[in-house]
Amino acid sequence: MSETPTSATSAVSRRRLLGVAGAGALAVGAAGVGGYAYGHTEDDPGREGQATYPFAGRHQAGIVTPAQDRLHFASFDVTTESRDDLVLLLRAWTAAARAMTSGLPVGEGVATSYDAPPDDTGEALDLDASGLTLTFGFGPSLFERNGKPRFGLGGKQPKALRELPHFPADQLDPARSNGDLCVQACAHDPQVAVHAIRNLSRIGFGTVALRWAQLGFGRTSSTSTSQVTPRNLFGFKDGTANLKSEDRAGIADFVWVGEGDDAGADWLAGGSYLVARRINMQIETWDRTSLREQETLVGRDREQGAPLSGGTEFSEPDFELQGREGPLVAMDSHVRLAHPTQNGGVKMLRRGYNFTDGSNALGRLDAGLFFVAFVRDPDQHYIPMQTRLSGQDGLMEYLQHTGSGLFAVPPGVRTKTGFIGDTLFV
Ligand SMILES: C=CC1=C(C)c2cc3[nH]c(cc4nc(cc5[nH]c(cc1n2)c(C)c5CCC(=O)O)C(CCC(=O)O)=C4C)c(C)c3C=C
Ligand SMILES: [Fe+2]
């Protein structure tokens, strides 16, 4: 559905661009590809299936951008203690991100010395930008480790940027959790997303080390009303009641960090917080559960995604409506516990993906949902809801949270000389 590029100019492969423009003329050629130049529209999330989304802007791309179908998420640890080296890396990542999101190869592409490795690893050379967005975040450990400030960032750590607390039933694997930096790469084509993380990782050699990574397929949320609601691995429509980019007031209230939200971290204004949770789903047990039980646990019907209180997919659930055995939308159903009316009016922008990572020792699928959400304040807009769900949600019987991370997502790069995180480092 989202695989078809809608922009004729941007459906041009990197190889053709090199052929036409030549390596030395890349910057000129790039301006015509869309997105590489600074012609972005402030706050415009773009259309579903677009082949290029602008990299520069007031906010980073990949948040309100219509969720692409593929994900490669990576978390890195910084291996240097030099602030200058870290800033050099962020500058180099910015240049590479500008190029790759425009459908261009990294650096000089393949047209470098025969005696040296090419700047770009090459597997995306025949592909266009494929709607690639790269969204960067900073973990709490970038600011402080073992009680000591790092990189001169003492005093700049946002108050809400702490490791997420232990939630009931968490079974977190430290090797799949946290990290100093994160990059969310989303694209229509998985090879483009993987190419992006691989090249950023390669550029970072000697400065950062990959800590953990997650591939995702099949978005589990819509972030625009123009998108069809996808399904998760339980077979249910997921994303129906998600916060959508067309809800400008909702996005302003619940996604973007505002000026003055945190006086000690004004650099984060225009940014957001990214919550990542790797949630394993007991697929085999679910597949032996009756449809009645499945729908009761979710609070919606499987076919249409309509609330069990009646109506169609986008009808508002009626939590008061009683059936023969109690409320039609059960007290411990996922939808009731996650609904804004049960959470002090809180709405959330979810942007997760299905995943399968082979099978486990019991011969069961190691599969689930890589939950990603962007929130303005994790203390108000994520932690209370997760506490409620982890403790009371009937679905938890089928879920295991195995990975976790919280990252502050700086605002977008706004100037030609700007770089990711420049509001924090300059
Ligand atoms: C803490 C936040 C949430 C986690 C973690 C989470 C995991 C999770 N969700 C599903 C399946 C569905 N979730 C649905 C709705 C929904 N989920 C959350 C939050 C979390 N989900 C919210 C805020 C909502 C919207 C509630 C509302 O306003 O009605 C749905 C219904 C369809 C929809 O509205 O998106 C499904 C289905 C799974 C399987 C899962 C963990 C693996
Ligand atoms: Fe959910």
Automatic annotation (TrEMBL):
<keyword id="KW-0456">Lyase</keyword>
<dbReference type="Pfam" id="PF20628">
    <property type="entry name" value="Dyp_perox_C"/>
</dbReference>
<keyword id="KW-0732">Signal</keyword>
<comment type="similarity">
    <text>Belongs to the DyP-type peroxidase family.</text>
</comment>
<dbReference type="GO" id="GO:0046872">
    <property type="term" value="F:metal ion binding"/>
</dbReference>
<keyword id="KW-0560">Oxidoreductase</keyword>
<keyword id="KW-0479">Metal-binding</keyword>
<dbReference type="InterPro" id="IPR006313">
    <property type="entry name" value="EfeB/EfeN"/>
</dbReference>
<feature type="domain" description="Dyp-type peroxidase N-terminal">
    <location>
        <begin position="60"/>
        <end position="217"/>
    </location>
</feature>
<dbReference type="InterPro" id="IPR048327">
    <property type="entry name" value="Dyp_perox_N"/>
</dbReference>
<feature type="domain" description="Dyp-type peroxidase C-terminal">
    <location>
        <begin position="229"/>
        <end position="413"/>
    </location>
</feature>
<dbReference type="InterPro" id="IPR006311">
    <property type="entry name" value="TAT_signal"/>
</dbReference>
<feature type="region of interest" description="Disordered">
    <location>
        <begin position="296"/>
        <end position="318"/>
    </location>
</feature>
<dbReference type="InterPro" id="IPR048328">
    <property type="entry name" value="Dyp_perox_C"/>
</dbReference>
<dbReference type="GO" id="GO:0033212">
    <property type="term" value="P:iron import into cell"/>
</dbReference>
<dbReference type="GO" id="GO:0020037">
    <property type="term" value="F:heme binding"/>
</dbReference>
<dbReference type="Pfam" id="PF04261">
    <property type="entry name" value="Dyp_perox_N"/>
</dbReference>
<dbReference type="GO" id="GO:0004325">
    <property type="term" value="F:ferrochelatase activity"/>
</dbReference>
<dbReference type="GO" id="GO:0004601">
    <property type="term" value="F:peroxidase activity"/>
</dbReference>
<dbReference type="InterPro" id="IPR006314">
    <property type="entry name" value="Dyp_peroxidase"/>
</dbReference>
<keyword id="KW-0408">Iron</keyword>
<keyword id="KW-0349">Heme</keyword>
<comment type="function">
    <text>Involved in the recovery of exogenous heme iron. Extracts iron from heme while preserving the protoporphyrin ring intact.</text>
</comment>
<dbReference type="InterPro" id="IPR011008">
    <property type="entry name" value="Dimeric_a/b-barrel"/>
</dbReference>
<dbReference type="GO" id="GO:0005829">
    <property type="term" value="C:cytosol"/>
</dbReference>
<keyword id="KW-0575">Peroxidase</keyword>
<protein>
    <recommendedName>
        <fullName>Deferrochelatase</fullName>
        <ecNumber>1.11.1.-</ecNumber>
    </recommendedName>
</protein>
<dbReference type="GO" id="GO:0030313">
    <property type="term" value="C:cell envelope"/>
</dbReference>
